[in-house]
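Please fill in the sequence for the structure shown.

STRUCTURE ENCODING:
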């Protein structure tokens, strides 16, 4: 993730809806974690998982999100997941 943040093309889309639900989910997780000033390890502890799982969920190439996992993350972040069909 650190390398992506240095990429000018990545910076252009950071925090903006991309139209790709997987990228938008990764961005939402990263943004919510950073808003709470949590490390991946701290979020993992709150969510009852490992830092490696959080890193995978924040990966821009991950494609296997489950609603159950997203609910656990949202709860750990004091948020609720929202799914929309557009």
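FILLED IN BY: designer on duty
SEQUENCE:
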């Amino acid at each position: 993730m650190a390398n992506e943040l240095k990429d000018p093309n990545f910076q252009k889309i950071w925090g903006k809806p991309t139209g790709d639900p997987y990228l938008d989910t990764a961005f939402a997780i990263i943004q919510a974690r950073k808003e709470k000033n949590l490390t991946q390890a701290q979020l993992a502890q709150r969510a009852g998982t490992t830092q490696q799982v959080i890193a995978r969920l924040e990966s821009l190439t991950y494609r296997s999100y489950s609603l159950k996992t997203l609910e656990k993350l949202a709860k750990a972040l004091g948020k609720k997941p929202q799914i929309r069909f557009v």
